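Q: My labmate handed me this sequence with no annotations at all. I'd like to see what the chain might look like in three dimensions before we decide whether it's worth expressing. Could you predict it?
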Amino acid sequence: MARYIDAKCRLCRRVGDKLMLKGDRCFTSKCAFERRDVPPGYTGASKRRAKKSDRGIQLQEKQKARYTYGLMERQFRKFFAEAERLPGITGETLLILLERRLDNVVFRFGFASSRAQARQLVRHGHILLNGRKTDIPSCLVKPGDAIAWREGSSKGEYYKTLVQEIEGRTIPGWLALDKQKMAGQIVNLPTAEDIEVKFDEKAIVEYYSR
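A: Here is what I predict for the chain of 210 residues:
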């Protein structure tokens, strides 16, 4: 499946906001957005961003959502179509569907510092879903599902370091994590109020509705 392989910091600069795509690095002085908060290709003489139309703002919000969850356009459009089909407010339903992705849940549990890293953990078979190895990052979790580390993966250096760092990581209220066993459970589905994102889901609905 196609995926974005260019520099992730360029995406933050493109939309004019820090999307925390590189995890802990985004909090350091090495963050490219902090050093150059202008779109790629801008010169020193043209640092002002052009004023966007309503359509341009809607597109930007949609791109922010895509970049945040690491999805290509076709994948994102499928999630939106599913959100439209389901009952409820489309924008809020879209947010909940995106949060239910296995790679996002691994990230929310604090097992990875970014969604890209969480996706790699899932792809490489380090994560168990209900006791079974699952290497599909887009798999949707449901209440009652259990997330744990594969026994062989718990012997690696990354896991040993993570055990020491996990205490300092905050877990959302819709998840429960046993930090001693490094195993978690989906308590319930998140609500729109539980999800902190840097994009406007209403603008995304308006973008696809035109």
